[in-house]
UniProtKB/TrEMBL annotation:
Keywords: Endoplasmic reticulum, Membrane, Transmembrane, Transmembrane helix. It comes from the Eukaryota. This is ER membrane protein complex subunit 6. It holds the Pfam family EMC6. It is a multi-pass membrane protein. Belongs to the EMC6 family. InterPro entries: Emc6 (IPR008504), EMC6-like (IPR029008). One of its GO terms (cellular component) is endoplasmic reticulum membrane. It is found in: Endoplasmic reticulum membrane. Coiled coil: none annotated. Its main location: endoplasmic reticulum. It comes from Forsythia ovata. The chain crosses the membrane at residues 94-114.
Amino acid sequence: MASHDESSVSRKKSSDSVDEISTFNAENMQINAKIISYSRTFMSIIGGVIAGILGFTGLTGFIFYFLVMAIMSVGLAAKAGFSAHPYFDSWNQILLDGFLGGLLSFVLFWTFAYDMVHIF
């Protein structure tokens, strides 16, 4: 059996090695990617409703979508502390993944809200 002094030395060595080597947990990174996907889908829906209520049509609606997604990307980067590597594989996951994936949801809720407010 190791004595108390020996175990504290081994704990100190193991904590030093943890500081030197950063490991990635694949399950946590998958969860983070899912959260980004859900967040972008949610913001696409909210952005579509807002664009419909404000009466955006044509190109202004799509510009509004890309503006909402750009703000979402900056918000996600800020939430990650502008350091992507502890939470994601690369910056592309924060900035680009799902950028166009929510476009169909945006258009659906944009047209729905526009019809509800301005046509009916």
